[in-house]
Amino acid sequence: MLAAIVVAAALAAAATLVRDARGREADLAIRERTLRSHALGMTLRFAVSLPPGYDGGGRYPVIYFLHGLPASASAFRDIGFVRRALEQVGGRAIVVAPQAARDGDSDPEYIDWGEGRNWETAIAREIPAYVDRHFRTIPNRRGRALVGISAGGYGAMLIGLHHLDTFSVIESWSGYHRPTDPDGTSVLDLGSPAANARASAHALVGTLRRSAARRPLLLGFYVGRRDSRFRRDNVLLDAELRAARVPHMFRLYGGGHDQALWSARAGEWLGRALAALAPAVDGAAATTPASTPPDLSRPALLPGRP
User: CA–CA separation, 231 vs 198, rounded Å?
Assistant: First the structure.
């Protein structure tokens, strides 16, 4: 019986995959949408994965997922493992993965650079506004998480901390906390102390305790012990947050900076994010957003273990 169940589950998962025109696997549960972005002066694309049962009504929290950089203009499509991990933990959430690069701009670091290149504004303001208009979301900060891998983890941390009015859950998976060059080996100089400080999570620690007290926050960041580029930066941020008594969750895991770690832990990390978000609301109760979200006022302080 167990073998039959495993085979049936495998067939069900496989049934969502087809070959696209170029012979690549395409996940039918993931659809693509576009919006006209004034922040970027272009049509911005993003992938959307809806939870099982979405067509039956209800409102759902949204996990905004940021991919790594440098990247092609189509990197946002590669979220199949996120959707599958969410299903494995019984997660009832919408996943939105925005385009975060384009031809000639493959490593924008999720920062606002100026007219026509304001990636932070597009992700923090334009996309959530569009998603709330067109999908049955829980349209407040308690219904939104910002999560990312590698450079996307940097973007999630920075954008999330800049926009605590928009997101109540921030998770960085193998991210860093200052802008880097495309190799991730050197910190970028943005031209002024003020610009450098605004682009660094380290510089935000001093004000985060007060702002987090006003806006309850789950702040989590995770990295592999063998991640030679970004482990030290994460350990440093953990120490700074602990010294400032800012509640957060930090973990070191076996593994490096690779898909093996992310795929193995995605269910755990997404489950943690979901537990902190306002839960999905079914049927008639979904006519208005959930009004009693979970208490995040005292998230655990978890020490890192270098």
Answer: 22
Q: How many CB atoms lie within 10 A of CB 242?
A: 17
Distance CA 108, CA 93 (A): 28
Mean pLDDT of the 33-58 span: 94
**What's the CA dihedral at 88, 92, 94, 100 to 10 degrees?**
-40
**179 with 107: CB under 8 angstroms?**
no
Residue 88 and residue 52 in contact, taking contact as beta carbons nearer than 8 Å:
no
CATH topology for 29-287 is Rossmann fold (3.40.50)
Q: With bands split at pLDDT 50, 70 and 90, how would you rate the model's confidence at 27?
A: low
Distance CA 274, CA 143 (A): 9
Owner of token pair 């997101």: 167
103 token code pair = 């031809």
Q: Maximum distance among all alpha carbons in the chain? A: 65
Per the structure block, which two tokens stand in for 7?
Answer: 């085979």
* Residue extents of the structural domains in the chain: 29-287
Q: Is the pLDDT of residue 61 over 60?
A: yes
- Distance from C-alpha of 119 to C-alpha of 123, rounded to nearest angstrom: 6
Q: Which two tokens stand for residue 203?
A: 């510089």
C-alpha to C-alpha distance for 71 and 90, rounded to whole angstroms: 30
Task: Report how far apart the first and last C-alpha atoms of the chain are (Å, whole number).
Answer: 44
Tens of pLDDT, residue by residue over 86-98, are: 999 999 999 999 9
